[in-house]
From TrEMBL:
It comes from the Bacteria. Pfam families: Prenyltrans (PF00432), SQHop_cyclase_C (PF13243). Belongs to the terpene cyclase/mutase family. Residues 77-114 form the Prenyltransferase alpha-alpha toroid domain. The keyword Signal does not apply. Pathway: Secondary metabolite biosynthesis; hopanoid biosynthesis. This is Squalene-hopene/tetraprenyl-beta-curcumene cyclase. It comes from Neorhodopirellula lusitana. Residues 305-530 form the Squalene cyclase C-terminal domain.
Length: 664
């Protein structure tokens, strides 16, 4: 154990910043007292929606629908074209680098929109911005050629056909490529029970089965195959369409996701099934999910996820959750409880007991939102009525049992389905595994001490140790950094593995992760980000990036906050402060001091960043599907609230200890 630490001096700016964040986070709730959040508009999603509506416009005979589709296409095209980057390509969000996948989808959307026509309003907008539609197309074609064309698109995804085949299908429907470029997908596999999918060698991830069916069918319709397999496929058309219909949620949007729903709709329309219920409900979803600026986000919302994160953030130091009135706490608790899935899920076949990312019908229970909801309910439990506490305990028990059944043989947790490990976004991941272990440890001792739970944690810890990189970091599955060569995000992954980590992870692994985070502190004192952050803020009135005495700031609020939260979590355990976890870490004094310095430096960075309103510009660190980038408006506020709340809690304990020592 190290010598007693000095009190962390945060003083007035810190308290003012934390109070500001609390107010902003609480004011971001909706009228039902939970958080909905706001996902970034996406050029990728907008392009796929436009393509689906264009194909529907071309094939429908309903005059009113033609007018409706045409109007939405015109508005969507105008928004989308304004998102072109200086290199001629398009990124997933307005803060994203150009990428070949989104750029090809934009090409298909523009091509298909020619059948709808380009209004004078759209043309005038382009001229006002100094471009004509032909110039936009020329620049886009040049970007795609320089990026490597179709071979480069295939290379981006490798053997994973989850996204490359839908993109090529979209391009083939638009006439941009031959149908020969589109791989045949085994849609007939969907006739088997969902429990067998993982044994069938699916070329797509578990959550892309609707695309497998729709795209597989349209490819078979266009290209056929030789007998006797063609006879088998012909007989499987009707039953797999029925499976597709059973999987479709009440909202009409598969996973509440615009791209997946759009790919399904355009493929079936191209096959001649525009009147099929799956298509009509899918088109309705696309029309209803367009935003006020006529764009589409990657998903409708992450309401359950951001609500769970917000509650955890407000619970990071004593008394702050008390700012929510008792009646609203009850409503908030009831809402989270209502989001738990209580029936076998028609999409993935998941057992009851888990939570998805939203309360909407397209959500699917997963191994990140389930522990998130459990931790949030545990935080709310102390303010709940006795009857509500019983409900919370029952819900958390069912959630924990759901997680226990989902754990893979390698000891890690996958996102949706156990045993699907062949493709990247179905594999076990460190961020989900660490989250599940944290949820188990947050539960009452009578549950967490059960032998099967302890065995599960042991296996999870072994998985985490095996996944640690030589430099001490961990790479997450669902988050990235666009400025890194491999687009991974070891700051996020390492912070999420280490925060409140189980002591069984071992001091070697824990200290190795800490050393990585400390060694990768940016010159500006924060973490993460890169040159794209600098370029954005340099061109934005929010901040003069060169004003800081240490030079331009390239860090992000999100990643800096995650690092500070992690450091603070471990610092209390290094110093054996009262109120910390009871599994203390015997860290070298030098590491303890450097951890304290990292907390101070990160806290100072966050204070300045919030004062400069940097947290109002969320950064694209999130992945949806196969590296489809998004940002969530609430992430910077939530993450910073959690980090500074941790510092506040630690500082109170250190101050009390200091006062006690002085008085004695």
């Amino acid at each position: 154990m190290t010598d007693a630490p000095l009190r962390i001096d945060t003083r007035k700016p810190f308290s003012s910043t934390l109070n500001q964040l609390d107010r902003e986070l609480l004011s971001a709730r909706n009228p039902d007292h939970h958080w909905t959040g706001q996902l970034s508009a996406s050029a990728l999603s907008t392009a796929t929606a436009i393509s689906a509506l264009c194909v529907a416009y071309r094939e429908t005979n309903d005059t009113d629908k033609k007018l409706l589709y045409s109007k939405q296409v015109q508005c969507g095209i105008a928004w989308m074209l304004a998102q072109a980057n200086p290199d001629g390509g398009f990124g997933d969000t307005d803060r994203s680098h150009s990428n070949i996948a989104t750029s090809y989808l934009v090409l298909a959307a523009i091509t298909l929109s020619q059948s709808v026509g380009v209004t004078n309003d759209t043309k005038s907008r382009l001229v006002h911005e100094g471009q004509s539609l032909p110039q936009v197309m020329d620049s886009l074609q040049n970007y795609l050629e320089k990026a490597g064309g179709i071979p480069a698109l295939r290379k981006r995804y490798g053997t994973d056909k989850t996204f490359v085949v839908p993109i090529l299908t979209n391009l083939a429907i638009a006439g941009c490529v031959s149908w020969d470029e589109v791989a045949a997908l085994p849609f007939e596999a969907a006739v088997f029970p969902q429990s067998m999918y993982r044994f069938l060698g699916m070329p797509v991830v578990s959550y892309a089965v609707p695309a497998l069916v729709a795209i597989g069918q349209v490819k078979f319709h266009k290209s056929g195959c030789l007998p006797p397999w063609s006879w088998v496929r012909q007989r499987c058309i009707a039953p797999t369409l029925n499976a597709l219909q059973r999987m479709q949620p009440d909202s009409g949007g598969y996973l509440e996701a615009t791209p997946l729903t759009a790919f399904v709709a355009m493929s079936l329309i191209e096959k001649g099934l525009i009147e099929h219920p799956v298509v009509q409900r899918g088109l309705d979803f696309l029309l209803e999910s367009a935003t006020a600026d006529h764009s589409w986000p990657i998903d409708t919302n992450l309401a359950t996820w951001v609500t769970s994160l917000s509650i955890a953030a407000l619970s990071s130091s004593p008394g702050r959750l008390a700012r929510i009135p008792e009646t609203e706490i009850d409503e908030l608790t009831s809402w989270i409880l209502s989001c738990q899935h209580n029936e076998r899920h028609p999409f993935t076949g998941a057992d009851p007991g888990g939570w998805g990312w939203t309360d909407l019908s397209g959500a699917v229970p997963d191994a990140d939102d389930t522990p998130g909801a459990m931790i949030a309910l545990t935080a709310l439990r102390s303010r709940a009525t006795a009857a509500k506490q019983v409900q919370i305990d029952d819900a958390c028990q069912r959630g924990a049992n759901w997680l226990l059944k989902l754990q893979n043989r390698d000891g890690g947790w996958p996102t949706f389905c156990r045993g699907w490990g062949k493709l990247p976004f179905d594999r076990s991941s460190v961020d989900l595994t660490a989250h599940a272990i944290r949820a188990f440890n947050a539960m009452p001792t009578e549950f967490s001490s059960q032998p099967d739970v302890q065995r599960s944690i042991d296996r999870g810890v072994v998985f985490l140790r095996k996944q640690q990189n030589e430099d001490g970091s961990w790479a997450p599955l669902w988050f990235g950094n666009q400025d890194r060569p491999d687009e991974d995000n070891p700051i996020y992954g390492t912070a999420k593995v280490l925060v409140d980590c189980d002591a069984r992870l071992g001091e070697k692994a824990i200290f190795g992760g800490l050393e990585y985070l400390i060694a990768n502190t940016n010159p500006d004192g924060g973490w993460g980000g890169g040159q794209s952050v600098l370029r954005y803020f340099c061109s934005d009135s929010v901040l003069n990036a060169d004003a800081a005495p240490e030079g331009p700031r390239t860090s992000t609020v999100e990643e800096t906050a995650l690092a500070v939260e992690c450091f603070t979590s471990l610092y209390s355990r290094m110093c054996a402060v009262s109120g910390g976890r009871n599994d203390f870490l015997d860290a070298p004094k030098s590491l303890t001091n450097r951890t304290r310095d990292a907390i101070l430096g990160g806290t100072a960075w966050l204070n300045e960043a919030i004062a400069d309103k940097r947290h109002e510009a969320a950064w694209p660190i999130g992945f949806y599907f196969a590296k489809l980038w998004y940002y969530e408006k609430l992430y910077p506020t939530i993450f910073a609230t959690a980090a500074l709340g941790r510092v506040d809690a630690l500082n109170r304990v250190l101050a009390a200890q200091e006062d006690e020592a002085n008085s004695s």
